[in-house]
Amino acid sequence: MTQHSVHHATFTVARHYGASPARVFAAFADPVVKRRWFIEGEGWTIDEFTPAFMEGGSERSRFRFGDGPPMRNETVYHEIVPDERILLSYAMITDGKRISVSLATITLSPAGAGTKLVYTEQSAFLDGADQAAEREAGMRDLLETLAAELDRQSAAAA
């Protein structure tokens, strides 16, 4: 008999960007831009990215790192307040096994000439297949990739 477990965790990551809340929000809303910073990266193979950035929208991505197992991210957007807030839930599936389900809130607020983004995630990690510290580190990396994307856009506009 398989022993099942669930571990609950909450973490918050705050990040400042030198772009306006509207530009940061657009990086989530524009499917081409989001794909660049959210799912693409060195060593990753993308099998599917089906964005649906709207309240009630279901977004799906399938990918793998190197020769690793196939992974999926299934996201549902519950509330979108342009330039201010995104509320979503998502499940992570690795090699056909659901490893976590999370509720995430992203808030954007003006901060000087830029934006303060606060990302809060409440997660249920299933059967020891994932850990809160790994997820938080992954989110910090994604938010750094978003910063690089915003910087790239600024440089291209100059």
UniProtKB/TrEMBL annotation:
Q: What is this protein called?
A: SRPBCC family protein
